[in-house]
Amino acid sequence: MKLAGRRSRARPDGSSLDAGARHLFWGWALGAGVALFAAWWLQRRGMWAALVAGDPSGISVGIVIVCSLCTAWCGRRAWLLMQQVQPGSSWREAYRVERATAPEQATQLLSERSHGPHETAWWFASSAIKLGLLGTVVGFIYMSMQIGRSSQGFELEQAQTLLSQMTLGMAIALYTTLAGLIGNLWLGLQLLLLDRMADRVVADIVALEGGPPGHGHPLPDPSQAAGGPGVGGMGAGASGTSRS
C-alpha cells in the first residue's frame, strides 16, 4: 500500500513538463533575439526615423516602448515558470503550507499566484491595439481639421500644402494602426504560451500534493477487490442455494 501511494503521487509527465518549461524560455530568448535583429535592421534602413517623423503624435513610439517592456517581463516570467517546475519550488512549498492551514483557499491562492500577473500583462497587450485605434482617430481628426481650415478660403495655390497636411494625418493613422496590430499579436503569442505553461505547472502541483481539498478519491484496496465482502456475500449466497 505504501508503494501504491507513492506511485499515485509520482509525476508521470515530470520530464515533459521540465522540457516544456525550458523550451518556453529558450523559445522566448530566440524570439527576442530575432526581434532585436529586426529592430537593428530597421534602424539601418532608416525605418525608425521615418516612424518618428511620420507620427508626430508619438503614439507609435509609445506602443513600441510598451511592447518592449512587456516582452522583457514575459522573459522574466518564463524564467520563473521554469524555476517553479522543479521540486521544492516556492509555489509548491506555499501550496503545501496553505493546504495545511487554509485548505479551502489553497487552490485559489495557487491560481492567483500563477495567473494573476498574466491578467495585467493581457491588459497591456490589449492596450497596444487600443492605442493604435486612438492614433487612427487622431490622424483622421488632424485631416478633418486641415480640410476645415482650407474650406474657409481655398485657393488653387494652397492645394499642394493641403495635400501634404492630409498625408501627414493619414501617416499618423496608418503608423499607429500598424504598430498596435503588430504589438498586440506579438504580446498575445507570448502570453498565450505563458498561460498554457502556468496551467501545466498548477496541474502538476495540485496532482503531486493530492488534488484540491475535498476532491480526493482514495484508491481501492487490492485485498478487498480480490476477496472483499461482495465476493464473500456472493459465495455465501451460492452456498446457500446449493444447500437448498
Outline:
With 244 residues, the protein is mostly helical.
Task: Explain how this protein is built.
The protein has 244 residues and is an all-alpha fold. Helices cover 83% and strands 0% of the residues. The longest helix is centred in the C-terminal third of the chain and has 50 residues. The radius of gyration is 31 Å and the shape is elongated.
As a whole number of angstroms, the C-alpha radius of gyration is 31 Å
Return residue spans where pLDDT drops below 50 for at least 5 consecutive residues. 1-10, 214-244
* Arithmetic mean of pLDDT: 80
Beta-strand content estimate: under 5%
- Percent of residues in helices: over 70%
**What summary fits the major beta sheet?**
none
Helix and strand run: HHHHHHHHH
Strand segment count: 0
Structural class: mainly alpha
Defining traits:
disordered N terminus; mainly alpha; 9 helices; 244 residues
Secondary structure elements and pairings:
Blueprint: H1 2-8, H2 14-44, H3 47-54, H4 59-84, H5 90-101, H6 106-152, H7 159-208, H8 222-227, H9 229-243
